[in-house]
Write the structure tokens for this entry.
Amino acid sequence: MSDSNSKLSLAICGLGRFATRRILPAIAACPNVELVAVVDRSGKASGLPPGTRRFESLEHFLDTRPTGAVYVATPNYLHAQHSVQCLEAGLHVLCEKPMATNSRDCQVMVDAARKMNLHLKVGHMLRHSPALQLARRWLQNGLIGEPRAICTLFHYDLPENLRPWASRQDFAGGGVLMDAGIHCIDTIRFLLGDPVILLGAMTDRPAQANSVEHGAACRFTAGGVISFVQVCSQAPYFTRLSVSGTNGEVVIDNFAACWGKAKVKLYAHQTGNAGCAVKEEMVDVSMIYSEQIRNFADAIGGSEVDISEPLDAAENVRIVEKLYELSHRS
């Protein structure tokens, strides 16, 4: 934390489209965080708070011996390298998901955080979604009885020219399954827990070397509950989550949204109003990224280092790797 106002001094490494649209506004909404620097090779960043320093490379930034933390928002293949550099320089790290492009690099990051006794968090921001937190409480309170199945759909359309590196396996670590599917996997684990037992996977990955898939479907069990994930990166945006149980069902349309509001609905089996929700709440999900960053700052300011979160994120990457292996056998 900075010594003058107890705010966390935070720098952003990688000021691309995502960081500009999501992270800059989120930091501005956090009273316990101060943006002090950005690492931006393009030099085209605008709308930064007065006094924010700009650096063309992470090395130049680290040469200034900064204190505080860094939000790593560079392309996937740089997550491990940049996170380890920051950790070894004595900086706490919040790394965007996926944690790395492979589980080996995830372990290197965990080892660096342990060695330096620093906080390492990973941007699975949906764990901070009030909609998912509400659904989790409903499940824990037994409102649908025993969960029996969970289904997640995540469709979006992001032109490749906006993220050209994302179309290469070596740069991205995978296609839509690593990009959006990992959110679905983390959400299911957040709601239902472990262990995860993989059952099958299919993707439309082309045969060309270094290519990535645009569509994928997989199934596994999480905490003993059958789980389905279906993702597509060439369709209009649409996300939906449903958890079916012995006594009812919880449904969230737009469960992955981080803007506006999401509706959480409870349906009960064996009621006189088939198809009608017996309970529903409209939840504001526009502050998910701010909440993630605020919690990161709070953890740095008031708790011992907890390595469980990066271990969870590393497990998500390992699950995706295993699903790719299954899909190749199909």
About this structure: The chain has a mean pLDDT of 94. The first helix runs from residue 17 to 28.
